[in-house]
Write the structure tokens for this entry.
Amino acid sequence: MENFRFQCATKIIFGKGTESFVGKEVGKLTNKILLHYGGGSIKKYGLYDKIIKLLKEESIEIVELAGVKPNPRLSMVGKGIELCRKNKVELILAVGGGSVIDSAKAISIGVNYNGNVWDFYTGKERAKKALPVGVVLTIPAAGSESSPGSVITKEEGSYKRPYVDNIIRPRFAILNPEISYTLPPYQTACGVVDIMAHIMERYFTTVSNVDLTDRLCEAALKTMIKNAPVVLKKKDDYNARAEIMWTGTVAHTDLLETGRIGDWGSHDIEHELSGIYDIAHGAGLAVIFPAWMKYVYKKDIQKFVQFAVRVWNIEYDFDNKGKMVFEGIKRLKEFFKQIGMPVSLKELNINSDRFDEMSRKATENGPLGNFMKLSKEDVFNIYKLSQ
């Protein structure tokens, strides 16, 4: 086990009706905010009106910025920075899923920075100041509500890059599973894959003697496998929604990565897909992760055997570990299919035309991943396996 420091500063407020606390929580920090959200869904289902009412009851001054898209854009971040500076905003309240929260985080570090906020996402700079961010979560998926990460897409060149820093962890996150009842099945399924991918990125490590976090990861994966089909059949099953929402948050607090070194190669490979083709991140991960597994499993076959046995209940076969590994990957793909996810690039209408470009961009700052270091050629081969 590796040495580690763990601190999740985000205050989690979880359960039915908890959005009613948003005014009080914001009021503890400031009386002037940027309200940041996506399309019309929070207005359509009444959440917007409820939040506005609660904020006004606490005499909170509100500046609004709507229109965040999936794979949040750098141009939107720029608009948010300008609004916050002009109106002397002191907190950003993100009402939405990972895209809205990631956009809010980017704005938070850009307001007090004299350069281009993209500098943080290219590794040129580290943030020294950030406006506080609060969250009302609507989509369990990205885990950004309690994570130190933000992923932004730069339209010019179709670059999608992450920035990770504890300074951008939200101060509070309100999680009411009831809010997710209105999500379309496809969006729900994309969120499920995203959550599972966050767990698997941490699970596949070369660090030994990490039994506790191995078991925590396996429990989290099995929780998703059990509850995802339930909510896709009955969208208002509160208990199943609650399990998924809480797993999504826990999966990205870094608790499951304590003492171990995660991989993150699959995420970086997928970022090129969603950066160029603007597909849902979860859908891209459903395609890339099984292909990555097939490509790297020999690096530590025992870890993949463990995954097959403990997560997918495959009977141990001492004479044919490779067969066990491929059965585990097969069952993962079958699960993704069961919940309505694509498992090939063909299903996403993506051909091989830009494999070389994506492989080059993905590795332009060096090899990807930690479980196995992936060169441009390796990434290209994983795209090929994903077809």
User: Anything to note?
Assistant: The chain has a mean pLDDT of 97. The chain has two domains: 11-178, 185-385. The longest strand covers residues 32-37.
